[in-house]
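Write out this protein's structure.
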Amino acid sequence: MPGSKKVLLASPRGYCAGVDRAVIAVEKALDRYGAPVYVRKQIVHNIHVVTELEAKGAIFVEEVDEVPEGSHVVFSAHGVSPAVVNAASDRGLHAIDATCPLVTKVHREAVRFARDDFEILLIGHDGHEEVEGTAGEAPEHITVVNSPADADTVVVKDPSKVVWLSQTTLSVDETMETVRRLRERFPELQDPPSDDICYATQNRQVAIKKVAKDADLVIVVGSSNSSNSVRLVEVALEYGAKAAYRVDYAHEIDQAWLDGVETVGVTSGASVPEVLVREVLDELSGAGYRDVEEVRTAEEDLIFSLPKELRQDAAGNRDGRALGGRSRA
């Protein structure tokens, strides 16, 4: 009814199985080996998660040459290139690979297509850690395509032997538009054997599309360096939200955003713990948005095994916390 204030809460949202696995991997490494445990780059792209792990004894570094020789180092969920793996080995580091298995799948595709002498067009964002890791698997075969506009200018040596792969956290719609443009220029362009954009990225985009059409405002909880969180803002605006903003924390909500707003959509990126969403809901409740309706578009129950070094406890028994990922409310 006119004048009523409500929240449309997107589901699925928040942690995906790969993020859950990576965060648990750092926690278990700290339990097993004691602090400090080093982590190359942010384990996942969320400032709250990183801060909490730092408080437990994790030390985040940019490159492995900052890690003392012989130490334990965890590779982030975004994956690393073979050059990084080799550099860690050269320093005698005990490496624990927390790369999301869905990213590892793309790495394997890159290796296979390069071995078959394909030119690989990697759709993704230059400088993103995941793209750097994938491109590092076959740098002489891979060209990064940043956007649909890039598809109009990219040059290939042999149009009959070209394939596309993608970063896992992109906008599904924009990626397929890039592929469409590439195929117009290179009709023999091959597809990857299965979709590279991860299930969680797709599910969160589908959910926010459904929410956005009925929302005066969408708030996305997630960090600025989280590709999938930034994409959720873009998708919300594209699918009908009158306004959309990203916040790390509830206190970042500008009360001016709520002026004249009856319906607020809320979601979170795949590296965001649910506690941060609950704090946003509390903040909105304080502003009069107490009616919360969940908009669910999929169920998620995927789980991944932890890195092999962490599947057993110190006595060699299978650890009860050997899996990452769980059903999400």
